[in-house]
Amino acid sequence: MTDHPAPTPARACPATPASGRAATPPPAPELFTWEFAADPYPAYAWLREHAPVHRTTLPSGVEAWLVTRYADAKQALADQRLSKNPAHHDEPAHAKGKTGIPGERKAELMTHLLNIDPPDHTRLRRLVSKAFTPRRVAEFAPRVQELTDHLIDQFADRGSADLIHEFAFPLPIYAICDLLGVPREDQDDFRDWAGMMIRHQGGPRGGVARSVKKMRGYLADLIHRKREALPDTPAPGEDLISGLIRASDHGEHLTENEAAAMAFILLFAGFETTVNLIGNGTFALLTHPDQRARLQGSLAAQETALLETGVEELLRYDGPVELATWRFATQPLTVGGQDIAPGDPVLVVLAAADRDPERFADPDTLDLSRRDNQHLGYGHGIHYCLGAPLARLEGQTALATLLRRLPDLRLAAEPDDLRWRGGLIMRGLRTLPVEFTPSG
Fold it and tell me: pTM (2 decimals)?
């Protein structure tokens, strides 16, 4: 989720066939280089064909299995023999910060939805799921539109902007802060901490862990203050932290650490994915003018169908999450014909699965009207992204408003000159410079 300093290339190693000797494949691509980060899809195509489930050494030094075919990915995402709890790893890599979110262990933020299994996962997910129902998200839509317009207002009369720093990044931060109940006067602190957590423009060594620690301290204090002031009866649209406190105080056995960890992961998982959805999606539209023109025409006619299918296609084509978060085998299992031992880490490559030609026709083609589009961009199974309805709302609102208000939006740099954040889980641009005719 953060930048790696000068990533060490890793070479994909084909798994040994169960029987017979396969023909010699073409040379394996190098993984985790800066060139790979810019366009990983040719390498993923090679892996799907020649090494669909294979063991590789990651830039951190941890060895893991990468799963790249759609059918195998869907199986692995739903297989409860693959635990989310890093305690099942066969080496203490998590304690060294080599897996998971930097600093989360020291900050006592481990007990969140990305690190636990049933029954705890079931209990905690039930507590927060009501905040992300379609009805609750629909009620939040005017606030998302207000935030979107406010951010565009800040640069609309300038004729240029960096859409990552000035738009895609702050929008989900402020939205999730509102949902959690972070007071408006404190939200800029969250923006600063979150910026360090994704190393938006680089940062000092250890900065991510320090930001996580600061956020943990703030959340503990906020939970305490909200508990002290909590009314007896919940108000309509009560914020999520108050709802967690109320559930805890009424017998759901939610510890303070669990409440803080829940708020933390909702913020962490809820903003970077949306930053990348808006950034990657805008970049894809600007580099596919025919598709962008189709969408603008549809929006001008006040139609929403193409916007809805279009956001799903952008999630499939170049989605915000490149690899699903860590899983660890709890017993021997076989995925895609490959035996995996207990304790082995498994990383499902969503970006590879969502371009599998066995599942998607013309997978390398962007088609905003694609209908049969059961992509894995939000995962699958019990860990399917809880915030998907909110992310869809933010993505649709952001893209539609950009195209409506800045109709001649265009890149202010050559596509090949843009840099992608180096990392393992997320896929997103560092910057997205654009130009347009100033408004007003």
Answer: 0.88
